[in-house]
Amino acid sequence: MNIIIAGDGEVGFHLAKTLTEMDMNITVVDPHTELLSRLEKNFDILTITGSSTSPDVLHEANVDKCDLFLSVLHDESINLITCMVANRLGAKRTVARISNAEYLSPKNREMFRSLGVDEMVCPERIAAKEITNLLNNDLATEYFDFSGGLLTMYLVRLEQESLVVGKSVRELLVGYKTLHVRIVAILRNSETIIPHSDFVFQPGDLAYIISKPNQIEAIRQLVGKNEVNVRNVMIAGGGRIGRYAAKALEERMSVKIIDNNRNRCTELSSVMGKKTLVLEGDVTDIDFLMDEGVQDCDAFIALTESSETNVLTCLHARRLGVKRTIALVENTGFINISQDIGIDTIINKKLITASYIARFIVSGQAVSTKWLSGTNAELIEFVVGKHSPATRKPIGALQIPIGATIGGIIRGRETIIPTRETQLQEMDKVVVFTMPRLMEEVAKRFK
């Protein structure tokens, strides 16, 4: 697949890195020579210096041979114009990164499609949705639904008192036959492991669990995690993510938003409901946070523009007794460190953008995707094609490559946690955990 990325920062860099691992033909268009030099030095890609809205620059990038055009600059107006120009010049499919969630309404989506923008991704809105899902579900530090909740992925830290600690996968399968879950991967010491039958679980392991509905209490007992009811939330940072999250959370929780920008606070006060209190202040001032009752909050969410500030304020909140902490971390190098030192959940817009875009890259019918924080891996929901060879033999004989595993199957409204003997059927939805380099190979199994 020929992919052109128009970017002017780390999102473009991260996408280029990820896609080269998937063995795609990548061209990056960027106005900054320094970033392009970094890309050329580290990856086998073509780079072109210039404006992505320039027809001459896009012709130089061979836009007429482009299968997928991604515009992920910081300025959504430039992204939209870039996609329109690329579409007119022959790009088969275009995706624009945007910040204004208003553009995602069905009416506006259709309008932009008619202008040449096939898809739009709003990382801020997706991040806010992840935050609200996490606070509505106290079990996991990362959470994602497939097919409207028929299967769910939970990321859970195994505590010392967990029932699975010290046991192997084989012992888990034998001892808990009524448990409708599958542990598809373990993150241990920054290493991603697909557990085999003799793998032994250890305290502190981060377990990626695929589960049928209504298994929350069973999983809670399995991993040794106590229930936490979140009723009071403090949000540090009133940008777009903070605003989207607060609007969703205030329907069932008391919310405080703190921001040091007076104009932003005034604007927030005009759009928030009665259950949301907007405060002007410095979130790095611990005395101020204590005066505003951070120690009495059930959850603290740090969404400022500084990753360092978000990490540090979450650590302070944890030290003061806050039960749940969520930090926006833009530097992907911070993710594993943040998880290791006790922050419950990391939100990263680069990974969010990559997750959304991945569904347009893999061949076959990818319904949804989730890029996993702290790992270089993806959960993808495929649809098994008509006449697919995958329907002719049990899963154990499909020769799924090492580095990938099937976590669950959705058949109509039925959900299945598979075994080696499970037989796939046409139009089944299959949730697969895979490394990026294997996406295409895995996808071919279900075409």
Structure description:
With 447 residues, the protein is α/β, with parallel strands linked by helices. The protein has 15 helices and 22 strands. The strands form four sheets. A six-stranded parallel beta sheet has the order 3-2-1-4-5-6, with helices on both faces. It has a six-stranded parallel beta sheet with strand order 14-13-12-15-16-17, with helices on both faces. The protein is globular. The model has no long low-confidence stretch (mean pLDDT 87).
Label the structural class.
alpha/beta
Nearest-integer average pLDDT: 87
Low-confidence stretches: none
Question: How many beta-strand elements?
Answer: 22
Query: End-to-end distance, in Å?
Result: 17 Å
Largest sheet: 6 strands, parallel
Helix content: 25-40%
Question: Radius of gyration from the CA trace?
Answer: 22 Å
Tally of alpha and pi helices: 15
Give the DSSP E fraction (strand runs of 2 or more residues): 25-35%
Q: What form results from the Cα inertia axes? A: globular
Strand order of the largest sheet: 3-2-1-4-5-6
Keywords summarizing the entry:
about 450 residues, six-stranded parallel β-sheet, globular, alpha/beta
Topology (SSEs and partners):
Layout: E1 2-6, H1 10-21, E2 25-30, H2 33-42, E3 46-49, H3 55-60, E4 68-71, H4 76-88, E5 94-97, H5 106-114, E6 119-121, H6 123-136, E7 142-146, E8 151-157, H7 169-175, E9 181-188, E10 191-193, E11 206-211, H8 216-223, E12 232-236, H9 240-249, E13 254-259, H10 262-271, E14 276-280, H11 286-291, E15 299-302, H12 307-319, E16 324-328, H13 334-340, E17 345-347, H14 349-358, E18 365-371, E19 378-383, E20 404-411, E21 414-416, E22 429-434, H15 439-444
Parallel strand pairs: 1-2, 1-4, 2-3, 4-5, 5-6, 12-13, 12-15, 13-14, 15-16, 16-17
Antiparallel strand pairs: 7-8, 8-11, 9-10, 9-11, 18-19, 19-22, 20-21, 20-22
Helix pairs in contact: 1-14, 6-9, 6-14
